[in-house]
Structure formats: structure tokens, C-alpha cells
Input
Amino acid sequence: MFIQRGKVLLFGSHSTTARQLILRNKGTTIYKPLSSSSQCYYSNNKNSFLSNNNHRNFTTTTSDRGGAIIPNYSKEGEDIHLPPAEDPVGLQLYKKAIYCPVSRVLRTSAHVGTDHNGVTHRNMIVGTTETTNDSDDITTIITPDEARNVYAYNSGLRLLSTIHKHLDGDMDRIEQVLNLTGIVNGQSGFTQHAYVIDGCSQVLVDALGNDHGIGTRACYGAGTLGGVVTCYL
Output
């Protein structure tokens, strides 16, 4: 694998809940150290946008979902409306994204797929039957098509929103998606994990194009996942 000097990549692995992007280093220093001993940095420059003539630059226009609007490579004349970028939840003992200039890699935490209203459903799994009763709880079974077109797709939109915020809107710095990992909360015996994660893969292609948005991929199931789908690079 060849990596251009001054460029950075994105990829993920099974051993970490993170996504990684290859990024292009700027001519000026735009990274703030996490600590005096750390070699990994995150973007802290609010003025690092490229010129308006760059075709991959994310816009700052607010979308109907509350986030940014970016161009869609797959559908000419259409745009992708991102949700607003979110902060870490709970005790906030993690970062939504982090960049290491040594490896030129950006990683993101896992992003759970939501419905089109931005709601995470913890009582849904992907399968073929309608409902299943377990004690007093009722778990809704959704189809692979719905999981793919809604939850995996929106997981991808949330990932792009985090990346957009972390890169201060400078999407052109992404050189390549290296690896996408997707986890599906499937019914016992469910095997269409890859089909479901196609929804997230499609978002990356729409936003980055085939050359930059397609990398390697791993898909698997987890019966106790806190949502329908979660994805990371």
C-alpha cells in the first residue's frame, strides 16, 4: 500500500471500537497535543477550510437534519444532509474522534444507527418474524431492508458528521477509507450482516466517491448490541 507524503488514511480493526481515516497534513500546525507525553493529536483549528473551488470541501450550510450539507457523488445535483455532530455521552471517558499525525490516521468511536428522527431503538433486532415475547419485554423485529436503508445509513451519516466537525469542515483532507466495521443486532440465525452494513458503505461512497470511500470491510452480529446497528472506521 502506497501513501502519499503529507496524506493520511482512515481504517478500523476488530480489536478497537474506532474508525480510521487517512488525512492530508496541513502546511501549518493545526493539531493540539492531548498531553505533553502523547504523540496523538486532534484538530483544533476553526479556520482550516479549503478554498471554495475544492469539490470535496464540506459546506457550513445547516441541513434540514441540523448538521452540515455536503455534496453527493452518487446522485448528481443532490446533497447529503448530515445530523448535528454529538459529544461523548455518559461519563465522557472517550473521544468521538482522534487523529495521530505519526500514522496520519483518524479514528472515530462506534456510532449507533438511529431512525430518521435521530432516535436510537434498543428494543429492535434484525430478522424475519414480526415480534418476539421475552418475559414482559416485547422486542420488535425489523427487516434487513429497513436496517440497511434506515439504521445503517444513519450510522454512516452520524460518522460523517463527527468527521466533518473534527476536520473543521475540510473534507478534502480525507485521502482514503481503509476499513469499515459494522455490527448488527440480529435475530438468532441471522446471516445478512453484510447486506445491512451496505447502508453505511453507501453513505461513504455518496460522500467521498468510489476512489476514496471504498475500503476493506468486516461485518458481524452481536445479540446484546445497544441498538440496531453500529459502525466505525
The first strand starts at residue 8 and ends at 10. Residues 1-8, 12-20, 26-58 have pLDDT under 50 and may be disordered. The two ends are 18 Å apart (CA to CA). The CA atoms of residues 181 and 218 lie 5 Å apart.
